[in-house]
Amino acid sequence: MKLTIYPDKIKMGDEAARCASEQLQQAILSRGEANLILATGASQFEMLQSLVMREVNWSKVNVFHLDEYIGLPITHPASFRKYLMERFEQKLPGLRKFNYVNGETDPGAECQRLGKLISSKPIDVACIGIGENGHLAFNDPPADFETDEPFLIVNLDEACRKQQVGEGWFASLAEVPRQAISMSIMQIMKSKAIICTVPDARKAEAVKNTVEGPVTNRVPASILQMHPHCGLFLDEPAAGKLNK
Hints:
Layout: E1 2-6, H1 9-31, E2 34-38, H2 45-51, E3 61-65, E4 67-69, H3 80-87, E5 97-99, H4 107-119, E6 125-128, E7 151-155, H5 158-166, E8 179-183, H6 185-189, E9 193-198, H7 204-212, E10 230-235
């Protein structure tokens, strides 16, 4: 894991986007296409804003996204499909394909559909974040480090659901769905490169545990220590509790 600390979120997001775009272009040059994973949430605002401005041949890029609430309408402000349509897909009309997670259909069948799609596409870059509870995607602790299923139906713990309220996506904890479809830990780890963007002091404890603690499913993001090409992009508040 390569860790870099930036003075503010704008610089952090811009550098993360630059690295992602370079990886995508390399894949296009070598293989004729690139496959990208995108996350959502407040941690990705600056990175996505910069990424859509980068010179990438988007007509050669297929995109998968990490997770979606089960049963939440696409019209809801917290819908991850809505988030990525507005912040990414609609800004890149030449994009080859965006493979959305549909939380409004049968979740078991949707996991199977997405699993077949992503299994045929080697992932070049995964742009992800870390939750306040240390989760990756919606794999809350204790996360499943063993399953090779690409997508799972997961239960959201209280810390995860409180984060969604704290970020302003929902008005109350009661409104936050209790289940989601999530890309699995092992599927994320199959990505050739992982670009993990983590701003804000509220993530500082999770960052410390991810970087300096043992690899454990109690801190799902700690498994990133095992990835050969993972870049962790932090702003100074997110890095505030690191000792090293």
